[in-house]
Amino acid sequence: MNAAPLNLKIDIRANERWRGRLIASARSERVRSILEFAEQEVTLPDDGGPFQGQKFRSHRQPYVRLLWSEIESRRWSEAFVTGCVQSGKTLSAFVVLLLYMVFELRKSPIAAIPDGTMITDKWNADLLPVLKANGNWANELPKSGQGSKGGAPKTSVEFDCGQSIKFTTKGGSDQSKAGYTAPFMVVTEAAGWSSGTDTSKESKPL
């Protein structure tokens, strides 16, 4: 008995459309530079400053272009930033970098703060106002646990997007600091890390 001939009709155009969709969905999103991220996403909080409520603009603090360019060059494994009062160090070298790592690079960095009592201040005064000024980030704030319902985190804060910021301090044992690994660490108030603690046998806490 002869089998009936198989009649296949291939729609080349439909095949190409599906191929294009597959390639597009497999392509990773372009990672913006720190400067692009800051100027597109960061809104200055209502803190009484002359530009409150406006988007961050690098021309107001021109040094940030050079600073972020050097950080992104990957020529340095460490970068130290110092400057005069009201030069924007906290925003450009602490807040923006942490938020860039969380929301653009999709990484979970460490925020190193010398004194545990300063975590609340850094969260309430520096990080939270910038997070709330961006509606998308405000929606990512934790609904329960540390950092939720108006409370300040003590050891970490986990955003709804899955990334987190781990806070570490000078206190505690060397083992407790080494027990958490992260791809990046941002240190603030570095002078406070200049001396060790009674529980540390290491010469330099960092």
Protein described:
With 206 residues, the chain is of the alpha/beta class. The protein is 37% helix and 7% strand. It starts with 11 loop residues before the first helix and ends in a 19-residue tail after the last strand. The relative contact order is 0.12. The mean pLDDT is 85.
Helix/strand order:
HHHHEHHEEHE
Strand arrangement, major sheet: 2-3-1-4
Structural class: alpha/beta
Shape label: elongated
The chain-level mean pLDDT equals 85
Fraction of residues in β-strands: 5-15%
Number of strands: 4
> Which oligomerization state do the chains in this entry correspond to?
single chain
State the helix count.
Answer: 7
> How is the main sheet built?
4 strands, mixed
Low-confidence stretches: none
Percent helix, as a range, is 25-40%
Based on CA atoms alone, the radius of gyration comes out at 23 Å
Distance between the termini: 83 Å
Q: Could you give the topology of this structure?
A:
Elements: H1 12-26, H2 34-41, H3 63-72, H4 89-103, E1 110-112, H5 117-133, H6 135-140, E2 156-158, E3 164-168, H7 174-178, E4 185-187
Parallel strand pairs: 1-3, 1-4
Antiparallel strand pairs: 2-3
